[in-house]
């Protein structure tokens, strides 16, 4: 038992652990409509590619649950899909989840309204359950593969707070800890939103896993001194050739890891691989607002009026990825996902 959940779904309300308030407060945001879900994704109440996909599925269900006619249901469905699609363009899980919900509503269109609503509700829950099952398989596979690693550097947050309930990269770390207590996690603070120092460290503390927080710029010195056995990160989207879109700073880590011959691993569900995209050059990269860089919560850390270039993700070259660990197995360079 971890003692916390990223989301709860009770009486047609999605309760979301508000990640903006962590680590100081554990408060749940109540999402009762698809607009609440879109707001939560837009404003980082929740984040992480797998969890965004799950939330999107629930958002679709919430959009149609009060529809009175089949025509109204479809109208609400596509209105919600259009709005939620605009929230986070880089994470492929968002679009896959909505595609599955669309397939469901079309496949069971012949059913009466109340039964069709129940089908969509059940579909959202099944996507959530399936995600967790995939993560547990990934964790077992990754922990066996990386059983000799003890000092693990990770970037951003890939645990329960970002996923279906177990974790991707952090899920592997969690399973490694269960199998062999002799590990230490090196946590990048992950500017500008501090997903590492605020969220990953919070999760590791909850799990009683030893960790050290470092500034993002410390990785070169740490690897140069032989203090890192491997790097493990997640992914928001993986291109057909193995290029990886992940939180900004991941590409820098991979480049330094390559220089110092430190293995660099990506852990993600197989469906994160977008076979329709040839390379990372074709992955859309989200640009977020100035305030994430110029302020830390209520504190200004840059002159008023400063403009930023706040890319939320970057692209890690496939050649720098030692292996991609999925629930379908482990893949090595050269990647050619068909």
The order of strands across the largest sheet is 6-5-4-7-10-17-18
According to CATH, what is the class of the largest domain? Answer: Alpha Beta
- Biggest sheet features: 7 strands, mixed
What is the approximate shape?
A: globular
* CATH architecture descriptor of the largest domain: 3-Layer(aba) Sandwich
Distance between the termini: 38 Å
Helix content: 25-40%
Task: Note the beta-strand portion.
Answer: 15-25%
Output mean pLDDT: 96
CATH topology of the largest domain: Rossmann fold
Low-confidence stretches: none
Number of strands: 18
Rg over CA atoms: 20 Å
SSE order, one letter for each helix or strand: EEEHHHHHEHEHEHEEEHEEEHEEEEEE
Number of helices: 10
Overview of this protein structure:
- It is built from ten helices and 18 strands.
- With 338 residues, the protein is α/β, with parallel strands linked by helices.
- It is globular, with a radius of gyration of 20 Å.
- It has two domains: 128 residues, Four Helix Bundle (Hemerythrin (Met), subunit A) (Up-down Bundle), CATH 1.20.120; 185 residues, Translation initiation factor eif-2b, domain 2 (Rossmann fold, 3-Layer(aba) Sandwich).
- The chain has a seven-stranded mixed β-sheet with strand order 6-5-4-7-10-17-18, sandwiched between helices.
- The protein is 40% helix and 18% strand.
Short description:
The protein folds into two domains: 7-134, translation initiation factor eif-2b, domain 1 (Four Helix Bundle (Hemerythrin (Met), subunit A)); 147-331, 3-Layer(aba) Sandwich (Rossmann fold).
């Amino acid at each position: 038992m971890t003692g916390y959940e990223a989301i709860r779904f009770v009486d047609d309300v999605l309760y979301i652990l508000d990640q903006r308030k962590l680590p100081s407060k554990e408060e749940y945001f109540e999402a009762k409509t698809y607009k609440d879900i879109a707001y939560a994704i837009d404003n980082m109440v929740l984040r992480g590619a797998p969890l965004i996909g799950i939330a999107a599925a629930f958002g679709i269900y919430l959009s149609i649950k009060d529809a009175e006619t089949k025509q109204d249901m479809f109208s609400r469905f596509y209105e919600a899909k259009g709005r939620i699609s605009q929230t986070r363009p880089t994470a492929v899980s968002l679009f896959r989840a909505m595609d599955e919900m669309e397939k469901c509503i079309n496949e069971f269109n012949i059913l009466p309204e109340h039964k069709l609503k129940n089908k969509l509700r059940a579909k959202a829950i099944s996507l959530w359950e399936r995600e967790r099952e995939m993560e547990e398989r990934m964790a077992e596979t990754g922990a066996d593969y990386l059983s000799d690693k003890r000092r693990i550097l990770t970037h951003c947050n890939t645990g329960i707070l970002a996923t279906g309930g177990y974790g991707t990269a952090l899920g592997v770390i969690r399973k490694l800890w269960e199998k062999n207590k002799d590990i230490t996690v090196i946590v990048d603070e992950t500017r500008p939103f501090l997903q590492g120092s605020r969220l990953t460290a919070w999760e590791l503390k909850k799990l009683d896993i030893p960790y050290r927080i470092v500034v993002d710029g410390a990785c070169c010195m740490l690897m140069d001194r032989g203090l890192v056995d491997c790097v493990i990160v997640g992914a928001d989207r993986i291109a057909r050739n193995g290029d990886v879109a992940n939180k900004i700073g991941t590409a820098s880590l991979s480049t330094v890891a390559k220089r110092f011959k430190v293995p660099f691993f990506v852990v993600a569900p197989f469906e994160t691989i977008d076979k329709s995209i040839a390379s990372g050059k074709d992955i859309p990269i989200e640009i977020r607002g100035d305030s994430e860089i110029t302020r830390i919560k209520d504190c200004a850390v840059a002159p008023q009026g400063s403009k930023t270039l706040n890319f939320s993700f970057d692209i890690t070259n496939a050649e720098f990825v030692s292996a991609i660990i999925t629930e379908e197995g482990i893949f090595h360079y050269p990647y050619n996902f068909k």
